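go over this:
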Amino acid sequence: MTPIFRAGTALGLAALLGACNMAALPQIIEPAPADPGVDLPAQRAIAACLSRAEAQGLEVRGVANSSEVVGPGGAAVGQNVFVDVGRGGQAFTVRCSYTYASSEARIMTL
């Protein structure tokens, strides 16, 4: 055997053994959330508002904006989600109010 062939065979064998050992290791990196810039309650509010708009027969085109609603004590009580929609060939934005306590989404503007 030539030295180059032996070196290539050794490298290939080392890579194969390394790959076999890596497959047995548990996953230690957790998957990132859908949108790292948006917290979980806001993600739930957005999802609920998009579903509510679709349930009302609106063609959802995206989320224009979302903002937290703060109650009397300064605690967050919900989200206002502004959803870009279409219906009958027209495009417009509706406001959806999502309440954390009831997990209810309501389209406020049509």
In short: The first strand starts at residue 59 and ends at 70. Confidence is low (pLDDT under 50) at residues 19-25.
